[in-house]
Amino acid sequence: MKNIVIDTCVFIHIIRDTITGKKCLDQIEKYDTTANVIISVVTKAELESFIAQNNWGKPKIEKLNKILEAITYIDISNADQLLLDSYIEIDSFSKRKTKDKNGNLLKGSAKKMGKNDLWIAATAYSLDIPLITTDSDFDHLNETLMEVIKIV
How far is the CA of 45 from the CAs of 53, 74, 117, 129, 130, in angstroms? Predict the structure, then answer.
């Protein structure tokens, strides 16, 4: 069984039963039919906020809760050093402040990341597992620091 981190937007597409949501489910199954889904507690908070802001009805909330029952959460409130180091490295890399062993800045474009996205990426990076998303917030990390599976 393989592990995978899933971004907040993926859950929203799945619960809304969109074409993108169906593609996400197919990709997760293609990755591993018994994949262990891991999320940052930040994703859980984003989902709760999204529900409150968009007045989701009982059927969507129940569908989401059923999915979330089988998920492993990584809590950032008592993060270990590996998770903290991962956050620092991704934040530094995203701001083009990361240097190679010779002291030269690594190439790549600067990308401002939201703090929640940094924690989500750090979760995947610290565990050395892929992140599935539907947005472009993590594109600059793909094939540089980590594997990002983007569903469009």
Answer: 12, 12, 12, 22, 21
